[in-house]
Amino acid sequence: MPLVSNPDFAAFSLPEEHRELRSAVRRLADDKIAPRAAEIDASGEFPRDIYDLLVASGYHAIHIPQMYGGQGGDALAACLVIEEIARVCASSSIIPAVNKLGTMPLMVAGSETMLERYLPSVASGAAMFSYCLSERESGSDAAAMKTRATRDGDGWILTGQKSWITNAGNSDYYTVLAVTDPNAGAKGISAFVVHHDDEGLMIGSPERKLGVHGSPTCEIIFDRLLLPGDRLVGEPGCGFRTAMTTLDHTRITIGAQALGIAQGALDAAIAYSREREQFGRPISDFQGIQFMLADMGMKLEAARALVYAAAAKSERGDDDLPFFGAAAKCYASDVAMEITTDAVQVFGGYGYTRDYPVERFMRDAKITQIYEGTNQIQRIVMARELLRG
Torsion over CA of 134, 139, 143 and 148, rounded to 10 degrees? Predict the structure, then answer.
């Protein structure tokens, strides 16, 4: 087995409980998820069997606190789960990632009553949670959203649409950001919980995507959807701040997903370079290939150290989390794109076919540079944090 695939080969040591978790998730991923990965990609269907497997193992939403029936995993544990699953199947790794993304606004700003109402069903696997922020005309400019929630007695009427929603049509609950005060800018945005069976909720057709085919992505339309007052997350007007705080924490999980994709591609490239012969020698004997593999391994370990450090800051709630969350996501995803592209190059013509997984890794890696804030946005976040003082 290649050295970098050894769970004990890393820039720094993990606590024993995290090493044990990583090993357990890796065994599950290798034995149960990897054999399904190509089929999941080809079919483009949500892998319900993998979801059930993750629920049975407690890895579908490891971040839910124990007091709500969850595993109580910290931010690093969530990253390890996502990383190890993404190493074999990026689509499947989105299951724990989106459950954390969808529930994090509640954990940031929701009342205890709201947490008790929703988190146990996610912890048990009875429900999934999605996150609805982006719109057709307000992707990176999230504060320019048009979706409206207007007062209706004690409740609200929700009208508008959200785009590129992960797990739309499969999730039971959706955290939705909407304008409640058009004259207040970002301070006029609020967050709500929408149920999948609310009258007025419509799910659009699945997007035809480059990668992560097994994770459905759809538009959601709200047609005068009536929301009871108890669906408001936090106070009116705090939604945008809640959304941005959520992303500070959850962008790190995208960095972890990028690590897993890159690791899977590097493992495949190393193994292939040892087996593939040209000019009577394994191509791993040639310095050109050796330098490519060395750069891939170096960048991957640097990205991993940054992601794990950001996870620790997320768990502690450090003041510099916005910088490190953005940096971890940005750097790891850029590295994943480089490594998967180079892995395809190592495979040569075979890398461009579906006979090997590296073309899938390359397609899947691209989205990590885009969702939960493009890497251009991450650089803006980092620059603002650097210039703040």
Answer: -40
Among 83, 84, 219, 372, the one annotated catalytic: 372
Assign 105 a pLDDT band (cuts: 50, 70, 90): very high
Span 97-108, average pLDDT: 98
199 catalytic residue (yes or no) = no
| CA pair distance 129, 120, nearest whole angstrom | 12
Q: What's the CA gap between 156 and 218, in Å, rounded?
A: 24
Question: Confidence band (pLDDT; 50, 70, 90) for 3?
Answer: very low
Do 255 and 310 meet the contact criterion of CB atoms below 8 Å apart?
A: yes
**DSSP tag of 124:** H
Whole-angstrom CA distances from 213 to 44, 135, 338 are: 5, 21, 21
Is residue 4 left, alpha or beta, with left meaning phi > 0 and alpha meaning psi from -120 to 50?
alpha
Closest CA to 303 of 79, 95, 33: 79
In sequence order, what are the residues at sequence separation of 6 or more whose Cβ sits closer than 8 angstroms to the Cβ of residue 3?
9
Categorize the per-residue pLDDT at 10 as very low, low, confident or very high, splitting at 50, 70 and 90: low
For every residue of 48-66, DSSP letters joined together read HHHHHHHHHHT-SSTTS-G
Q: Where are the alpha helices (DSSP H) in 143-238?
A: none
Beta strands, E only, the chain: 129-132, 148-152, 155-166, 173-179, 189-195, 201-206, 217-227, 232-233, 277-278, 281-282
Q: How far apart are CA 182 and CA 28, in angstroms?
A: 48
End-to-end CA distance of the chain: 47
**pLDDT tens for each residue of 345-386:** 999 999 999 999 999 999 999 999 999 999 999 999 999 999
Q: Mind listing the pLDDT tens digit for each residue in 11-34? A: 567 999 999 999 999 999 999 999
> Six-digit token pair at 75?
């931010």
Strand, helix or coil for residue 348: helix
